[in-house]
Amino acid sequence: MIVGLARCECIIYDAGSLKDKRAVLQRIMTRIRQRLNVSVSEVDYQDAWQRTAIALAAVASSKVPAEKEIQNALKLIDSFPEIERTITDIEWL
After folding, report:
1. pLDDT in tens, 10-66
2. Residue 74: which CATH number?
3. Residue 22: predicted pLDDT
4. Is 13 left (phi over 0), alpha (psi -120 to 50) or beta?
5. Which residue ranges run through the membrane (predicted)?
6. Which domain holds residue 45?
7. Residue 3 gets which letter from DSSP?
8. pLDDT for 19
9. Integer Cα distance of 82 and 11 in angstroms
10. Strand, coil or helix: 37
């Protein structure tokens, strides 16, 4: 069994309030949960308007399917024009 963890720092340029930021994050995290077999959560910068950190976790029997799910989740995040992924760290346990 292998666990893949990804932590992404992102910028939401058009967020003028925490409400704007949370609306964008809710849409992204809901889409990830609906389409992919990963867990997702905001893990840092909860009080910053235009900055966030999102964590993704995937569990699989080998590295290949876990890595595929994480990469698909990262591509999905990148597909939203209102958010820019800046720093991504991936760990394998």
Report:
1. 999 989 999 999 999 999 999 999 999 999 999 999 999 999 999 999 999 999 999
2. 3.30.70.1120
3. 94
4. alpha
5. none
6. 2-92
7. E
8. 94
9. 9
10. coil
- Please report where in the chains the tokens 């409400």 appear, as a residue: 19
Q: How many CB atoms lie within 10 A of CB 55?
A: 16
Residue 23 corresponds to which tokens in the numbers above?
A: 């609306």
22 contacts 41 by C-beta, under 8 angstroms? no
State the amino acid at position 41 in one-letter form: S
Query: Phi/psi of residue 61, each to 5°?
Result: -80, -20
9 beta partners: 53, 87
Q: Which two tokens stand for residue 14?
A: 């058009």
Dist. CA 51–CA 10, nearest whole Å: 6
Q: Tokens for 49, please give them.
A: 């308007």
Q: How many residues does the chain have?
A: 93
